[in-house]
Write a structure and sequence with these properties.
Blueprint (H helix, E strand, L loop, with lengths): L7 H33 L4 H25 L6
Helix pairs in contact: 1-2
């Protein structure tokens, strides 16, 4: 099925999952950094690194999904 020919509701659902993935990736990176800081007492730099990794992973997920949407249809 061609993802560009989906109904309006399906497109809205896809866009909402993009937003959720974006936010959840950042929060997962932030909480992993916070957990490592509490576990090993490495300092607050671990929290910042975790948040940066979450932001990077959210952009990677965003660009992969946008690339899938812009692929030409296969025949």
């Amino acid at each position: 099925m061609d993802p560009r020919k989906l109904s309006t509701g399906a497109n809205l659902l896809r866009l909402s999952t993009l937003g959720l993935n974006f936010a959840l990736s950042i929060f997962v990176g932030l909480f992993l950094g916070w957990g490592l800081n509490r576990l090993f007492h490495w300092g607050t730099w671990v929290i910042v690194v975790g948040m940066i990794l979450g932001v990077v992973s959210s952009y990677v997920l965003l660009f992969e999904d946008l690339k899938k949407l812009n692929e030409p249809p296969q025949e």
